[in-house]
Amino acid sequence: MRYLEFDEFKEVGDPQLQLGMKFFSFKTFKLACRNWGIQNKRQIRFTVNDRKRCICKCQRFKSSNYEFRIFASHVGKNDSTVKIKSINLTHSCTKVNKNYHMTSDWLVEKYIEQFRVDPNWLVSDIIQRVKDDLKFHISRMKAWRAKKKAMEMMNGDEKSQYLKLNSYPLELQKTNPGTTVKMTQHLGVFQGIYIYICLAPLKNAYNPGCRPLISLDGCWLKGQHKGQLLVD
CA 218 to CA 123: how far, in whole Å? Predict the structure, then answer.
């Protein structure tokens, strides 16, 4: 018998869990269970979770006869593939209005394409979208954290980008010999105060073709690390 394999990229919304379904790892199996619980408004938990097996149960229903339960373990001794070996999706408890598995990371994973299309997606619109799609209400702080993480995922972390400025002058002088770069630093760490760059082609063009007049234009940096950018 050929069993269905779970694809975490295609079945993010409402995975159709069934007996014999195979997963790449226990991490993928637990992701599928969490997604199923969120989509069906059920709070699930993992009562057994080790390297050999994993049991998913309902958080609220305690009966041993008709309890929601999914048991998964490795297919074989030398096979790391995880397989559902027993499953009971029956629920006798009421649906939940909050689910602690719906984290900001989960929201980023689900709506990352929407963040790419609309980087200025408002926090209030994120809350409304989750309410329309999943019938859950999330706090403004959780929606704000999801947006912040999505922006960092797409644009990169500003703090880590500043750490790369030490190698930036060397790259400029390597590709544009004669370029002048001056940067305030202390023990190899960028202080975020001043950085001056004058590319060699611009420097060489000042004398033969430019008037002896220098004007400055600037703008304020409104990101996480404030500052001012001046361009002549």
Answer: 30
Determine which helix (DSSP H) or strand (DSSP E) holds 32, and give its type and residue range. Answer: helix 26-39
Q: Which residues of 81-116 are buried (b: 16+ CB within 10 A; e: fewer)?
A: ebbbeebeeebeeeebeebeebbbebbbbbbeeebe
pTM of the model: 0.62
What is the DSSP-derived secondary structure letter of residue 94?
Answer: P
Nearest-angstrom CA–CA distance, 40 and 169: 54
H/E stretch holding 127: helix 123-134
- Which residue's entry shows tokens 């305690």? 62
Task: Give the start-end residues of each E strand in 110-210.
Answer: 180-186, 189-198
**Sign of the CA dihedral with 61 first, then 65, 68, and 69 last:** positive
Q: Is the pLDDT of residue 2 over 80?
A: no
pLDDT for the residue 104? 92
Kind of pairing, strands 227-231 and 53-58? unpaired
